[in-house]
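Predicting holo structure, S-adenosylmethionine bound.
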Amino acid sequence: MAGIYTHIPFCKQRCTYCDFHFSTSFEVYREAVIKAISQELILRKNEISEKIQTIYFGGGTPSLLLKSEIELIINTVKNNFILGQNVEITLEANPEDISIENLILWKEQGINRLSIGLQSFKESDLTWMNRSHNLAEGIKSVKLAQSYGFKNISVDIMYGLPNLSSKEWKEHLQSVLALNVTHISAYCLTIEPKTALFQEVKKKKILPVNDEVQSTQFEEMIEFLALNGYEQYEISNFARDEQYSKHNSNYWKGVPFLGIGPSAHSFDGTYRRWNISNNTKYYKNVGLNDSWYEEELLSIEDQWNELFLTGLRTKWGVSKEKISLLGGFSEEEEKCINNYILGGEILETSTVFLLTKKGLLFRLAFCRCDC
Ligand SMILES: C[S@@+](CC[C@H](N)C(=O)[O-])C[C@H]1O[C@@H](n2cnc3c(N)ncnc32)[C@H](O)[C@@H]1O
Ligand code: SF4
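Done. Tokens:
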């Protein structure tokens, strides 16, 4: 099985915290980018021989796509790859794009999972974040999607936000629970250089919260969501009734995937490849020469690191068998892992190594969105 990720590098406006690859002035070349995405899919059809199990529209803001643009991308996948049964097709949607018209269109196109970016349940947060939706619109968008038959809905929220009291955070958790969604992705706010938020923090207009507050909110969330039927299956991801994101779970399990579009990353087990993070250079170069991407062959050491960094994020852990296939532990690594086991950060079973609750907190520094 394999997955296809398409990166849609368009956004209506710039959220203050975001350093993902996108442009807000894309109308002049949007058609060229979508055509190039379709062309890249065709050019790379022989890179994946397995059946496609998941298709993920990430961004940027894929909910800005027009009917003809979604159609072109999905039809190109259908015509050039072998699709498995019950393919999970996810679309990241911003609340302001969730209209009846779009919901009907997305259903018709086979999209069966929405990931909706709510971010916060506090109006003033949405304002400093420069989100293009308000609180009422955010909540309404989830309810509308549910009423139009979308059963598998994930919402993105953030914790570790400036000026968010413990009482407010607990209220946010109650609010997310009330939405009755199948999946929640909760990210701790990271202050990225080159963002407006970074400048605000530098000028001391916004005060970042300390690690202790973030850790407390993280712990409170894990406990609250577990009590209410959400299983934490990855550091930042919680699912009810095993409705895990198949697409993202496959990333963490090392399943091959094609990343299409500007800035998208691909992985085939031994090669990692990443496309140029420049929309114009991307659409001008796809198909002409190899200059729209770079790639690297992963050394055994890189593969070993990947195995640990991705496996330890999840409830499935790191397979001992896979560690052996990559040459096992050195004496020093063995000592290191034993120290973590003794310190209660890692748990060893007969088949895997897993992070404990204490270990999950220890990894907070790595907590960041995966698209
Ligand atoms: C790249 S966005 C794309 C989704 C969509 N455009 C939206 O805004 O909802 C994916 C998610 O990454 C998270 N994210 C982006 N920047 C972040 C940051 N600096 N710290 C924590 N989470 C972040 C947000 O929760 C966001 O919903
Ligand atoms: S958070 Fe989403 S909408 Fe906001 S700038 Fe980033 S990708 Fe665009």
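The chain has two domains: 2-252, 315-371.
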